[in-house]
């Protein structure tokens, strides 16, 4: 990672110099994603001003983030439950062999 890297990206017709420790290609990928989200927001709310569109995009991205976090949490919970069931099965099998 290069902490001094400046990457210029364009979102909604505006150019932004971004200084980041992230890989430049990743910053470009993030900007392209935000650009796509801005385009979708513009199509769904064409009368909105740029700030309104940015807030709409931010809410949509926050929703994606929250849903992904919830899915990850659910998956971890399911894995923990399966691990506990497997542990119980192993314990039962050991008890049967030993007993």
Q: Major sheet: order of its strands?
A: 1-2
Overall tally of structural domains: 1
Rg, rounded, reads 23 Å
Strand count, sense and barrel status of the largest sheet are:
2 strands, antiparallel
Weakly predicted, low-confidence segments: none
Task: Tell me the span between the first and last alpha carbons.
Answer: 58 Å
Query: Structural class, from secondary structure content?
Result: alpha+beta
**Global outline:** elongated
Question: What proportion of the residues is helical, as a percent range?
Answer: over 70%
Q: Quaternary state, please?
A: single chain
The H/E string reads EEHH
Number of strands: 2
Helical stretch tally: 2
Strand content: 5-15%
Average pLDDT metric? 89
Short recap of the structure:
With 99 residues, the protein is α+β, with helices and mostly antiparallel strands. The protein has 2 helices and 2 strands, in the order ββαα. The chain has helices at 24-44, 50-98; strands at residues 6-11, 14-19.
